[in-house]
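DM from R.C. (forwarded with permission)

"hey, sorry to bug you on a friday — could you get me a structure for this? deadline for the figure draft is monday and I only need the backbone to look sensible"
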Amino acid sequence: MIRGAIFDLDGVLLDSMAIWNDLGARYLLKQGVRPEPELREVLFSMSMEQGAEYMKQQYHLDKSSEEILDGIQEMLQDFYFYEVQAKVGAKELLTFLQEKGIPMTAATSSPREHVTRALKRNGLLEFLKRIDTTSEVGESKHSPLIYQRGAEFLGSRPEETLVFEDSLYALQTAKKAGFRAIGVYDSEGETNQAGVEETGEVYLNNLKEFIRYYKKLESE
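My reply, with the result:
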């Protein structure tokens, strides 16, 4: 029996992973500076603060690290507020689960204001009963706390709660905590797609595929 669903946002409901992959390059191009081809890999393991300092030193930018960080954050905000689109099949899946009487929340590592604006603009916010963020919970998705908070709010036990994730580590966290982990493909996200496929109860190339999977469960 499924009594609740928790959705990651970036790479699951929102087609937003690309911005995180090329944010540094976007910023440099806006400054009239050509980024190095491997910039994405260089910045991947850095915090935003570290990345700002790296770009200041590496590209001799005539700005303080704080000014660079502010510029990057402004670009990120503009992307969520005005550009990011819903993932294919997101609204169809949320509508289906709502019609089945399954309440839904979101669990995200992104800033609340950013994702709230993006969800509202794409007509998805109304489907979600609540949004939990890792910064507000105080623990990353290496801990199951954000999922446990969501399930508690939904009034469902972990084994009755779906968790949709595109990142392998988050999917593994949810599964180890007893949740029904659903793997979601995103072309700009997790590099270990085989791991996502192996970990999830089902692996979705498109969110609408879950509707067929759910109907199959109902018929069994």
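R.C.: lifesaver. Residues 18-83 form one domain.
me: no worries. DSSP finds eleven helices and six strands in the chain.
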